[in-house]
Design brief:
This protein is α+β, with helices and mostly antiparallel strands. The chain has helices at 20-42, 47-59, 104-114, 122-131, 145-155, 160-163, 224-229, 232-243, 247-262, and strands at residues 3-10, 80-86, 92-98, 119-121, 171-176, 182-188, 209-212, 216-222, 266-272, 277-281, 286-292, 297-300. It has one domain: (Glycosyl)asparaginase (Glutamine Phosphoribosylpyrophosphate, subunit 1, domain 1). 35% of the residues lie in helices and 24% in strands. Strands 4-3-2-6-5-1-11-12 form an eight-stranded mixed beta sheet. It has a four-stranded antiparallel beta sheet with strand order 7-8-9-10. Bound molecules: aspartic acid. Aspartic acid binds at residues 9, 65, 168, 170, 188, 190-191, 200-202, 208, 221-224.
Length: 302
C-alpha cells in the first residue's frame, strides 16, 4: 500500500468569491502536485521524496501561500518557513524566516540530512543554503500583486479573509511508501502582515508537522499560534499511539475540541500506518488532494 495526501491551506476561500475559472486553477495546481508525489511512490520512491516533490510543486505555484506567492510580512517582504520529517528514525529538518531560498522545503531537507541541527532560522539558514548550492532568489521573486493587495488591505484594518480569496494557502504533504515509511512536510509564507521574525506552526516539529512510523504523519494549516499552543500534530500522533484513538478520532478531537477551546481553527491532513488518509478542517474549506494505490484519487476544496 502507498498513499499520499496534500493540502494547499485551510479557511482560505469564502465560497462565494471563488469563480469557476479560479477554482479550476487551484484544482489544476493541486492535481499537478498530487500526481508528482504519487508518481514518486509509484516508481518505488520513498515517502520523503514524494512529500518533497509535492511541496516543491506547490511552492512554485503562485496561487499558494508558500514559495512564490507567499503572504507578505508587515515590511512588504516574504518570509518563509518550512519543515520536513521522516517517520522511521524520526529525523527532522526545518527553516524559518528565510527570505531568499526559492524552495524552503528543500532547505529543510538539507538541514535534516546535511547538518547536525533540526531548525535553522534567518541569515544562518540562508548561509547554509548557499553552502549547499540551493537556488537563492531576490525577495521580489516571491511577491505577487495579489499578496501586495492583501497586505494593503490588512494594513488598512480590513482582514484579508473577508475580501480576498486565498488569504492563507499554506501547503503540505504526507505520504506512506511501500516500505511502510511515513513522511510529512509543510511550507508557508505565514500570515499576512505578520511581524518580521514571526514564526508559525509549520516549521515547529510537533506543531504543524510530525511523522512517526507505525503511527501517523501529519501536516497542518491554519492560525499557527493556536497550532503551536496545542502542539497539534504531536497531539494527534500521541492520541493514536497512547490512547488508542483512530486517526480520524484523533484529528477530529484536535480540531473540534482542543483547538476550538483555545479559539483557533484550521485543517489537517494525516496518513496512518495502514495508509488510510484523513483530511479534516474546522474552516469553510481546505484545498486538498488524496491518492492511493487502491485507485482512489480526489481533489476537494469544501
Ligand atoms: N499555519 C500557517 C502559519 O500560521 C498559516 C496557514 O496555514 O495558512 O504560519
Amino acid at each position: 500500500m502507498h498513499s499520499i495526501a496534500i493540502h494547499g491551506g485551510a479557511g482560505a476561500v469564502p465560497r462565494h468569491t471563488l469563480t469557476a475559472e479560479r477554482e479550476q486553477r487551484y484544482r489544476d495546481g493541486l492535481a499537478a502536485a498530487l500526481d508528482l508525489g504519487y508518481d514518486t511512490l509509484e516508481k518505488g520512491g520513498c515517502s520523503l521524496d514524494a512529500v518533497t516533490a509535492a511541496v516543491r510543486s506547490l511552492e512554485d505555484n503562485p496561487l499558494f501561500n508558500a514559495g512564490c506567492g507567499a503572504a507578505l510580512a508587515r515590511d512588504g517582504a516574504a518570509e518563509l518557513d518550512a519543515a520536513i520529517m521522516e517517520g522511521r528514525q524520526q529525523r527532522a529538518g526545518a527553516v524559518a524566516a528565510v527570505r531568499h531560498v526559492r524552495n524552503p522545503v528543500e532547505l529543510a531537507r538539507k538541514v535534516m540530512e546535511k547538518s547536525r541541527h533540526v531548525l535553522l532560522v534567518g541569515a544562518g539558514a540562508e548561509e547554509f543554503a548557499l553552502e549547499e548550492g540551493l537556488a537563492l532568489v531576490p525577495n521580489a521573486y516571491f511577491r505577487t500583486e495579489e499578496r501586495r493587495a492583501q497586505l494593503e488591505s490588512e494594513r488598512g484594518g480590513r482582514p484579508v479573509s473577508d475580501l480576498f480569496p486565498s488569504s492563507q494557502g499554506t501547503v503540505g504533504a504526507v505520504a506512506l511508501d511501500a516500505a511502510g515509511d511515513l513522511a510529512a512536510a509543510t511550507s508557508t509564507g505565514g500570515m499576512t502582515n505578520k511581524r518580521q521574525g514571526r514564526v508559525g506552526d509549520s516549521p515547529i516539529i510537533g506543531a504543524g508537522t510530525y511523522a512517526k512510523n507505525g503511527v501517523c504523519a501529519v501536516s497542518a494549516t491554519g492560525h499557527g499560534e493556536y497550532f503551536i499552543r496545542a502542539v497539534a500534530a504531536h497531539h494527534i500522533c500521541a492520541a493514536v499511539e497512547y490512547r488508542g484513538l483512530t486517526l480520524s478520532e484523533a484529528v477530529r478531537e484536535l480540531l473540534h475540541q482542543k483547538l476550538r477551546e483555545l479559539g483557533g481553527s484550521g485543517g489537517v491532513i494525516a496518513i496512518g500506518r495502514d495508509g488510510g488518509i484523513v483530511t479534516e478542517f474546522s474552516t469553510e474549506g481546505m484545498f486538498r488532494g488524496i491518492r492511493d494505490s487502491s485507485g482512489q484519487r480526489r481533489i476537494d476544496i469544501y
